[in-house]
Every structure is written in structure tokens, then in C-alpha cells.
TrEMBL record:
One of its GO terms (cellular component) is Golgi apparatus. This is Vacuolar protein sorting-associated protein 35. It is a peripheral membrane protein. Keywords: Cytoplasm, Endosome, Golgi apparatus, Membrane, Protein transport, Transport. The keyword Protein transport applies. InterPro entries: Vps35 (IPR005378), Vps35_C (IPR042491). It comes from the Eukaryota. Plays a role in vesicular protein sorting. Belongs to the VPS35 family. GO terms for biological process: intracellular protein transport; retrograde transport, endosome to Golgi.
Length: 658
């Protein structure tokens, strides 16, 4: 009947029925119909013959009926494809089909039928069937034969998907057990696959970029599974991709872009180490083909990989390569519209770059200085909008090197780039000056003060003085906002208080300037708080620290006068004198210096101040304030506690009566 029925669809179903009922009656090893050695070949021959005839009938279906129904015919053919594929499944289930029979008979005959049928639907489906139904080890041993058929397929066949599936299958096989890896090396799988992909791309001139890149992604995945130690193979795959993209300056196809990102992400995921990717010469060349948006996404992936794996980049050369990779985040590409940037995304990107700078580290001072210079070169080219994010990280990276070099003087003879604190401070001055282009005076002032403190640690008085001078210039000329001035003056006071490198003359100049600025703040309460904070500049609680009790008392008395003026102004403006919180704060300063042994602060003075506060609180014009009441109550409890504690301190506090 099979030989008699010529109608393609009827013939297909008839032969499918024949395959189904004969499946458990084949003379296979272990079956009840097993005979001598040749019977297995009989079974193979029977199934192969049925497969060949069914495939012919399947291909013939496209010539049935008028051409205008071609689309409907193709749909019907596609639905009937599994009838043909079942034969290959039956072949793969025959126990007697070992590698020898598969190699010599099965694969040869099946591929011959696939190539000769010259039908793109049949060729694509059957190649996919071969890959899916036969064992992985068979594919590995017959790789050359299987790949040799690919260039012979019709130009319209989706060979890239066929090859991608083959490589994915082999990659999974390699990942399943380390014992099979020698087999891959033995058959030179990488070379064969690489050559086959090259031939396919060459043969299919019209293949879109996304198709070629998809093939390279699969080849790279295969390479990373089978030859993770062969970085030259990885670089070779990337190089082949660069060659394919040579005539496409910037990819515009979103699918192709996704594939390139997958290609670039694969080595990062495999090695968990960006340092390995930095040794691949073709890596940045592939990135150059991405558009600005995708380039930034890829740069973020690289930075996240570094942060996640806590990877330190330790040589100047690798830092240079890394910054070349992430240049999309560091500076605007030509023609890019800065105004179109999303503010939140921009902040995330720049904060990531700032975090990255802390991962660039080397124990050798000379190499570390080279790294800092490279980072400076790249970040300074980023434009004023990026500097407030990147400069602080760069400054602290340089200061970390300064702290390691503390105590070194001058230049080291006989070295090209001597890493000395003086040299680094010169560099830091130039870096912070760049912030004036932004402008960002508050940030620059903070960084100058940090540098001054570092110079103090290195015992470099002139350098520290220069940094303070720059901070004062910024305060005078750039910082106009009253709140920013208050913050800045307290930062200056706090930093100056910790400085022990200044001589008497320089320190007097600085403290005089600071107290002058404090008294000239806009609001009286701010003035008062800044002036009493200045008292700490004249009493440093160190062994060699300055202890000038008279000037401390002068500051506190001045603060009291300002607090009194603030009360009077409130009385005039609002008809009530306002809270007495400033007086309580000054009382606490009196107690602090009294406890520290300042002879100018007496128990009687503290007693007078407590009485003044009580008088102010009980006056008719006083504004009730629970915070001030609680603060005063706590302060008085503290005095009582010190009295009860006894000892020398207890005796001192006994002088305070209230």
C-alpha cells in the first residue's frame, strides 16, 4: 500500500502508521525479534528507507494545488513535520545503533537526504531534529560531517539557529561533567565550529548583523564552557565579531544590540573578574559599536561586576583600559545632547563611577600615583556636571595615599615619578580648583579642609596654610547663602581646632579670621553659636595643645552679649523675648571649660549665668519653650550629679550655688 499510494498527504499518514506499528517489531538488540548481527542493519535500513520516502512526500506537498494557496500549504506542511521527524526519533531509540553505525550509515544517509531535498522548511526542521534526538557524544565525534552540511543548505535556511542550538547542546554537555572535556580537545571542536561559522557568514552575504552576532554569542558560550583557560579563543571570537561589524559604525538594531551586550557580559559572568576581561584586546573594540545608551548600560554592568566581586584594579595599564571601556559614563559622546539625560539615571551612573574609583588600588606608592593621574585625566574631561560626583572620590583616593606616605620628606632621588606627600598635594590643589568651573564652592571648601588636615598629619605647615587660605577665599567670595555660611564656618572651626602644625603667628591669623567671620553671620543666633564654638580654638585638650583661658572667656562673654542682643531684637520685633536656649547652650560651654580646669571660668560666673537664665525665663515677655526648660533641667541635674560624686571635681562644683 505504501508503494502504491502516491498522494503526498495520504502517503505520509500511511507511512507514519507503518512506522508506528512496526516500532516495537524491529529486530533490535534485546527485542524478541533479534536475530544475528545483520538484523540491526535491517532495522536501520527499514527506518531510513521509510524516512527517505516520507521526506519526499512531505516536500512534494508544496507542489500540490494552485500557487495562490502557497501560504496555506506551507502552514499545513509545517503542521505535518513531526510525522517525518518521528523516524529520526525511532532511529535514535534503536539500541544497536552505536557510534560506528551512526557515523557510517545513519548520519550520512540522513544528511544526504536533507541536502538533496533542496527545500528550506525541510532542511531547517530536519537539521534541528538531528541535533535534538541523537546523543551529544555522537555529535561531538561527527562534528565535521554535521558542520560540513551547513554551507550546502539553501540560502534561505536559518542556519544560525541550527548552529546556535548545536553549540548550546554541546555547551550543556561540556558543563555536565569535567570527564568529557578531553573529548572536545581531541576532536578540536572549537576550531571546527569557528571555521563553520566563518563559512556560513561568508556564504550568506545578506545575513543581518543580529544573525552573525547570535552565532558568536553561542560560540563564545561554548568556548567559556569548554576552554575557560584559553583567553586567546575568547579574544578570537570577539575579534571575529569586530570584523563582522567593521562596516557598521554604530548598531541601530535593538535585537543586535542585545546580542552584543550578551556577548560582552558572558566573560564577566564566567570569570567573575573584570581583570580577565581587561586582557582581551578586542573587548573595547566590540563596545565601540554600541550606541550611547547601550554603551552606558554595558559600562554599568562592568562596574557592578567589579563591586559585586570586590575586585581591585591594581595597575595603571588596566585602569587605562577600564576607563576606555566605561568612557560612555565619564564623558559625553560627540553629538550627544546633555540636556536629554535623565537626572536620576545620571546620578546613579556618576555615583557608580565614584564608587569605582575606590576599587583602583595598588600597595606600591609610585603605581598608585600613576593610577590617580590616569583617573584625574579621564574625570577632568567629564565636564562640570560630573565633577561634583567624581572629584571627592578622587581626592580621598589621593589622601589615602598621603596617609600611607606620612613622614616622607622631599623627593626620592633616582626615581622617575616620586610619590611624595608634597607632589600629591600639588595634584590635589589642581583637582579641587577644577570644581570652580561647576561652580561648587561648598564641596570645594570641604575638600580643602580635608587636605589641610592631611597636610597637618604630614607636618607640612605651609601646605596646610595654603589649603586654609583657599578655603577662606571660597568662603568670602563664593558662599553667599546664609545657611551654607553657617555650615562652612562650623567646618572651618572644627578643622582648625584639630590643627597642631601651625606656628603661633599662622595660628593667630587663622583664629582671628575665623572669629571675625563668626561674628559677621547674618542671624544673631547663628552668630552666637559660631562665636562660642570659636572658644575651642583657644583651648585644645591635648598634651601640647594651646590653653588660653582669657581668650576662651572673651569668646564666651561675646557670645553672651550676642545672645542678649538676640533677645532684645525678638522683644522689639515680636513683643516677646523668645526662648532662652542660647543662654543654656553658653552655660554648657562654661561648664565644659570649668571642668577642664580653665582658671578664668569661676563658679561665681556660672552661678551668675544660671540666675540670669532664671530671670529671663520668669520675665513677663518670655516665650514658654519646653525644649529650653528640659535642657536647663538636664544641665542643673548634671551639676548636682558632679557635686554628689565628690572628690576634687565635686569640690569644684560645690562653688556653684543655685
Amino acid at each position: 500500500m505504501c508503494r502504491g499510494v502516491q498522494h503526498p498527504i495520504r502517503g505520509l499518514f500511511l507511512r507514519s502508521y507503518l512506522a508506528q506499528i512496526s516500532r516495537d517489531k524491529l529486530p533490535d538488540i534485546g527485542s524478541e525479534y533479534e536475530g544475528d548481527a545483520d538484523t540491526v542493519m535491517d532495522a536501520v535500513e527499514f527506518v531510513l528507507q521509510n524516512f527517505t520516502e516520507m521526506n519526499k512526500l512531505w516536500v512534494q506537498m508544496q507542489h500540490q494545488g494552485p500557487g495562490r494557496f502557497r501560504e496555506k500549504q506551507e502552514k499545513e506542511r509545517s503542521e505535518l513535520r513531526d510525522l517525518v521527524g518521528k523516524n529520526l526519533h525511532v532511529l535514535s531509540q534503536i539500541e544497536g545503533v552505536d557510534l560506528g553505525i551512526y557515523k557510517e550509515t545513519v548520519l550520512t544517509r540522513v544528511l544526504e537526504q536533507v541536502v538533496n531535498c533542496k527545500d528550506d522548511l525541510a532542511q531547517y526542521y530536519l537539521m534541528d531534529c538531528i541535533i535534538q534526538v541523537f546523543p551529544d557524544e555522537y555529535h561531538l565525534q561527527t562534528l565535521e560531517t554535521l558542520l560540513g552540511a551547513c554551507p550546502q543548505l539553501q540560502p534561505t535556511v536559518d542556519v544560525k539557529t541550527v548552529l546556535s542550538r548545536l553549540m548550546d547542546r554541546l555547551s550543556n554537555y561540556a558543563a555536565s561533567s569535567e570527564d568529557v572535556l578531553p573529548e572536545f580537545l581531541q576532536v578540536e571542536a572549537f576550531t571546527k565550529l569557528s571555521n563553520a561559522i566563518g563559512k556560513v557568514i561568508e556564504a550568506q552575504v545578506d545575513m543581518p548583523a543580529v544573525g552573525a552576532i547570535t552565532l558568536y554569542v553561542s560560540l563564545l558560550t561554548f568556548t567559556l564552557c569548554v576552554h575557560p583557560d584559553r583567553l586567546d579563543y575568547v579574544d578570537q571570537v570577539l575579534g571575529a565579531c569586530v570584523k563582522k561589524l567593521y562596516n557598521i559604525p554604530k548598531l541601530e538594531d535593538s535585537r543586535a544590540m542585545k546580542q552584543v551586550v550578551a556577548l560582552l557580559s558572558a566573560p564577566l559572568e564566567k570569570y567573575n573578574d573584570i581583570v580577565t576581561a581587561l586582557t582581551l584586546s578586542n573587548y573595547p573594540r566590540v563596545m565601540d559599536h554600541l550606541d550611547n545608551g547601550t554603551n552606558k548600560v554595558m559600562a554599568m554592568v562592568i562596574i557592578q561586576s567589579i563591586m559585586k566581586n570586590n575586585t581591585f584594579i591594581s595597575t595603571a595599564h588596566k585602569v587605562e583600559v577600564l576607563f576606555e571601556l566605561i568612557k560612555g559614563l565619564i564623558k559625553d559622546k560627540d553629538g550627544a545632547d546633555v540636556d536629554e539625560l535623565d537626572e536620576e539615571d545620571f546620578k546613579d551612573e556618576q555615583n557608580s563611577v565614584a564608587r569605582l574609583i575606590h576599587m583602583l588600588y595598588n600597595d606600591e606608592p609610585e603605581e598608585m600615583l600613576k593610577i590617580i593621574c590616569i583617573v584625574r585625566k579621564h574625570t577632568m574631561a567629564g565636564g562640570p556636571k560630573r565633577l561634583p560626583f567624581t572629584v571627592p572620590s578622587l581626592v580621598f583616593s589621593a589622601l589615602r595615599l598621603v596617609w600611607r606616605l606620612q613622614g616622607q620628606e622631599g623627593d626620592i632621588v633616582g626615581e622617575e615619578v616620586p610619590a611624595t606627600p608634597k607632589k600629591i598635594f600639588q595634584l590635589l590643589t589642581q583637582i579641587i580648583e577644577a570644581l570652580s568651573a561647576v561652580p561648587s564652592p561648598e564641596l570645594a571648601l570641604r575638600l580643602y579642609l580635608q587636605c589641610a588636615e592631611a597636610a597637618n598629619g604630614c607636618d607640612l605647615e605651609l601646605v596646610a596654610y595654603e589649603f586654609f587660605t583657599q578655603a577662606f577665599v571660597l568662603y568670602e567670595e563664593e558662599i553667599a547663602d546664609s545657611k551654607a555660611q553657617v555650615t562652612a564656618i562650623h567646618l572651618i572651626i572644627g578643622t582648625l581646632q584639630r590643627m597642631n602644625v601651625f606656628g603661633v603667628e599662622n595660628r593667630d591669623t587663622m583664629t582671628h579670621k575665623t572669629t571675625g567671620y563668626s561674628a559677621r553671620l547674618l542671624k544673631k543666633p547663628d552668630q552666637c553659636r559660631a562665636v562660642y564654638a570659636c572658644s575651642h580654638l583657644f583651648w585644645v585638650d591635648d598634651q601640647d595643645g594651646i590653653k588660653d583661658g582669657e581668650r576662651v572667656l572673651l569668646c564666651l562673654k561675646r557670645a553672651l552679649r550676642i545672645a542678649n542682643a538676640a533677645q532684645q531684637m525678638a522683644n522689639v520685633a515680636r513683643g516677646s523675648s523668645g526662648p532662652v536656649i542660647l543662654f543654656v547652650e553658653i552655660l554648657n560651654k562654661y561648664l565644659y571649660f570649668f571642668e577642664k580646669g580653665n582658671q578664668q571660668i569661676t563658679g561665681a560666673a556660672i552661678q551668675d549665668l544660671i540666675e540670669l537664665i532664671n530671670t529671663e525665663m520668669q520675665s513677663d515677655s518670655a516665650t514658654p519653650d519646653t525644649a529650653s526648660d528640659a535642657f536647663l533641667a538636664s544641665t542643673l541635674r548634671y551639676i548636682q550629679f558632679q557635686k554628689q560624686k565628690g572628690g576634687v571635681m565635686g569640690e569644684k562644683f560645690e562653688a556653684i550655688k543655685f
